[in-house]
Amino acid sequence: MEAGLQVLQAVTAGKNVHYNLSEYPFGGAGIDQSGEPFPASTKAGVLAADAVLLSAIGGPKWDQATIRPETGLLQLRKTLGVFANLRPTVVNPALIERSPLKAQIVADTNFLMVRELTSGAYFGEPRRLTQQDALDTIYYSRQEIERVMKVGFQLAQTRKQHVTIVDKSNVLATSKLWRQVAHEQVAQFPNVTVDDCYVDAMAMNLLSQPNQFDVIITPNLFGDILSDEAAELTGSIGTIPSVSLGKGQRALYEPIHGSAPDIAGKGIANPFSMINTIALLLKHTFHRPELATKIDGALTRTIESGVVTPDLGGSAITTEVTQTVIHNLEGGA
Ligand code: IPM
Ligand code: MN
Question: Where is coiled-coil annotated (predicted)?
Answer without folding.
Answer: none
